[in-house]
Design brief:
single chain; about 450 residues; Aminopeptidase; Alpha-Beta Plaits; eight-stranded mixed sheet; 12 helices; 16 strands; binds zinc ion; signal
Length: about 450
């Protein structure tokens, strides 16, 4: 072979290499940081990825499972991760899964989806209606799983460009079961620097997001009380101790906690949502059960409310010669902390979402008295929670979450997947680990 042939071969090889974008222009290169969000959005809108997410979401929608019973949901996710070649740990908190994409070394950043459905009958008539009577994905968690898998696919495709490790968190039992607390207590956040999560929203248009820095959702707790008196003939009340009247007074007194004892500028709620007692027109029952929820935006106000709810119920019952016991179900329904968005992650989110959607489409929300168990993650490490708009303005209002008429607008799926992927990948690029800690902590799953 002549020297000319060698030169030509070398030249051809160089030409080939320089025309191959993955080698000369990494997808997640730090120089192109401002372009990464729109690159991911374009990837997520590709028909094959969009249709993949739609297929996953519809399959989950047809087979809803309640908290800590997401066995088939969890199996589907693991099959998908296996297919993508993504290693994971399972089971965590019964059905939970944690997957790993990237170097296996710091920094670590987590993105999260919840998996559970609600115990309610779907009223929407469509091809992929729930096949399980009395159970429905009426909060959009089917879409959350589909979007996290969509993000996983994109990140795995570009894993060699990741400067650290993305942790995929699929958690059970968001709807009151505190699945996030169980995942956190199992140690999944060890060495993790930050976590991002979102919820689909029926309040904002597709292509917009909404959030705020600081407290975004309230702390939440539940309680139930049994008020016991002495039943008897409704026409001879002097021989009874009437728990209906005592419970009515208790409910009125409970409403004074927020209106008379709380700072009007410190939002709080006490709601009695259940009142059960008696079964006849002319019989005073032995006992009444009441139950409800309380919300606040600081731990201090929350614990003060809890203390006063117990005190008011037991003391007000005794005013009317009844006995009362109060149960806060702290084991089965753990108190949810306030969901607080980290201020530095807020800046990161605004920048990345702004690059992807335009600054005018990154909206500010008012704090909500609703609660979200993402708060357990954000209590342990810097966390950030936001809403993904899914209103199609040509179709009018969408029924809100927990309605039997709730519908997910699947056009929102690419936005959630792209935001998950962009926030995590750019976070890693912007947070190189201190040299000294690089070898100290690692996840050995990879
Ligand atoms: Zn919900
Ligand atoms: Zn939800």
């Amino acid at each position: 072979m002549s020297s000319c042939t060698w030169v030509c071969l070398l030249f051809n090889l160089c030409t080939l290499l320089s025309s191959y974008p993955a080698l000369s222009d990494p997808f997640l290169g730090e120089k192109g940081l401002t372009e990464i969000p729109s690159k991911f959005l374009n990837l997520a809108k590709r028909p094959e990825l969009f249709e993949y997410m739609v297929r996953i979401r519809r399959s989950l929608h047809e087979n809803p499972e309640l908290g800590y019973e997401e066995f088939e949901t969890s199996r589907l996710i693991r099959n998908e991760l296996d297919g993508m070649g993504i290693p994971y740990k399972h089971p965590i908190a019964v059905t939970g899964i944690v997957g790993y994409i990237g170097t296996g070394n710091p920094p670590f950043v987590a993105i999260r989806a919840d998996m559970d459905a609600l115990a309610m009958q779907e009223a929407v008539e469509w091809e992929h209606k729930s096949k399980v009577p009395g159970k429905m994905h009426a909060c959009g968690h089917d879409a959350h799983v589909a979007m996290l898998l969509g993000a996983a696919k994109m990140l795995q495709e570009h894993r060699s460009d990741l400067e650290g490790t993305v942790i995929l968190v699929f958690q059970p039992a968001e709807e009151g079961g505190g699945g996030a607390k169980k995942m956190r207590d199992a140690g999944i956040l060890e060495n993790v620097n930050a976590i991002f999560g979102f919820h689909v929203s029926s309040s904002y248009p597709v292509g917009t997001v909404a959030t705020r820095a600081g407290p975004v959702m309230a702390a939440s707790g539940f309680f139930e009380a049994k008020i016991s008196g002495k039943g008897g003939h409704a026409a001879i009340p002097q021989h009874t101790i009437d728990p209906i009247l005592a419970s009515s007074n208790i409910i009125v007194s409970l409403q004074h906690l927020v209106s008379r004892e709380a700072d009007p500028l410190d939002s709080q709620v006490v709601t009695i949502a259940k009142f059960q007692g008696g079964h006849a027109f002319n019989v005073i029952p032995d006992s009444v059960t009441i139950a409800g929820t309380f919300r606040a935006f600081s731990q201090e106000s929350f614990m003060q409310l809890k203390h006063r709810i117990e005190e008011v119920i037991t003391l007000q019952a005794s005013v009317q010669r009844c006995n009362a016991s109060v149960n806060f179900y702290a084991d089965e329904k753990p108190f949810y902390p306030v969901t607080v968005n980290d201020k530095d992650l807020h800046k990161h989110f605004q920048k990345i979402a702004g690059h992807m959607l335009g600054d005018e489409n990154v909206k500010e929300v008012q704090p909500l008295m609703g609660a979200e168990d993402f708060s357990f993650f954000a209590e342990a490490i810097p966390g950030y929670f936001y809403y993904i708009g899914m209103v199609d303005e040509t179709e009018g209002r969408i029924a809100p979450g927990h309605s039997p008429y709730f519908k997910v607008n699947e056009d929102a799926l690419p936005y959630g997947a792209a935001l998950h992927a962009s926030l995590a990948a750019t976070y890693l690029l912007e947070h190189p680990p201190p040299i000294a800690t690089q070898k100290l902590s690692s996840h050995d799953e990879l």
